[in-house]
């Protein structure tokens, strides 16, 4: 085994894997350092447009890490490291606080913030969120937390307690990447969810004859029957947009409309608009 081969020898993974392990350790160290002053983190906002009116109804906060030498690192990479290294609570608080502060001055109905399952298991999570809302002055019903379907399925006492407290306060819950977790369909009746975000893998498959049309249609119908709002993520083409509008999806989000924007870009988009009117698309 790797252990028996002793010090100085490469592990069974070989040199390439060792390089990856070393890189990962370096990034964890940098992440720890970056979290002590937070200046390398930014929160970007991707608009969500109401399918019917074309209005920019809300935004989703997405974390960004501007690493001093490696450039912009995706949350797909650093969120799992933060989770494993016990840093997600701090990172999550930062994103929430920044998003709530920004949203408090914006006219959107809601701001959505992604939450990791590790945060949901933290017995102090709901209290943290309430503290952030009161510090930033954002009303609880203007905050929505995006939780992946898989995280939401978890049988966990702390998670349930957090969900109950958050919902009692009026905070919205959206199931993110919906349709990828397989088993939620049957449990939606007992849900305490407000909103479903259809995973972009289904949107991507539209027109590819994989049955994704039927899946999306079923999700939208189910959501409507339950009184839940639907958003499609990852909308990149007009053909996808047309289909999603036709089946009655409520909100559309994706590169077709806008990439995630910095807070300053959102400020500029809103500047000079009378009566806090929302930007509207001509394309929808
Ligand atoms: P998500 O919440 O499902 O967010 C959607 C991801 O798809 C975002 O990537 C977004 O930039 C990207 N996207 C948006 N429109 C399109 C499109 O039209 N086509 C394609 N191909 N992609 C599109 P991003 O920002 O890299 O975030 C990835 C994931 O990282 C998020 O998935 C979310 O699960 C997680 N994440 C982001 N920010 C945070 C955070 O603050 N906390 C936690 N716990 N997770 C976060
Ligand atoms: Mg999300
Ligand atoms: Mg999503
Ligand atoms: Mg997704």
Automatic annotation (TrEMBL):
Residues 24-274 form the EAL domain. This is EAL domain-containing protein. The lineage of its organism: Bacteria, Pseudomonadati, Pseudomonadota, Alphaproteobacteria, Hyphomicrobiales.
């Amino acid at each position: 085994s790797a252990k028996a081969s002793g010090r100085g020898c490469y592990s069974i993974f070989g040199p390439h894997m060792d390089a990856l392990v070393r890189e990962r350790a370096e990034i964890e160290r940098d992440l720890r350092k970056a979290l002590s002053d937070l200046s390398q983190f930014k929160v970007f906002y991707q608009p969500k447009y109401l399918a019917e009116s074309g209005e920019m109804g809300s935004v989703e906060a997405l974390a960004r890490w501007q690493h001093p030498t490696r450039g912009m690192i995706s949350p797909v990479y650093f969120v799992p490291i933060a989770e494993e290294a016990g840093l997600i609570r701090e990172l999550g608080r930062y994103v929430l606080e920044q998003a709530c502060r920004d949203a408090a001055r914006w006219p959107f109905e809601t701001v959505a913030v992604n939450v990791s399952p590790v945060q949901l298991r933290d017995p102090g999570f709901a209290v943290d969120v309430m503290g952030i809302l009161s510090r930033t002055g954002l009303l609880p019903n203007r905050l929505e937390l995006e939780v992946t379907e898989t995280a939401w399925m978890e049988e966990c006492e702390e998670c349930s307690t957090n969900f109950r407290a958050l919902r009692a306060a009026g905070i919205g819950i959206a199931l993110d990447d919906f349709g990828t977790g397989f088993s939620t369909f049957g449990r939606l009746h007992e849900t305490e969810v407000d909103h479903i975000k259809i995973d972009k893998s289904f949107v991507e498959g539209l027109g590819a004859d994989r049955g994704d049309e039927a899946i999306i249609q079923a999700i939208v119908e189910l959501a409507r029957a339950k009184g839940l709002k639907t958003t499609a993520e990852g909308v990149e083409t007009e053909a996808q947009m047309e289909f999603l509008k036709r089946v009655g999806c409520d909100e559309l989000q994706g590169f077709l409309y806008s990439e995630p924007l910095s807070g300053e870009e959102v400020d500029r988009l809103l500047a000079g608009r009378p009566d806090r009117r929302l930007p509207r698309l001509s394309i929808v």
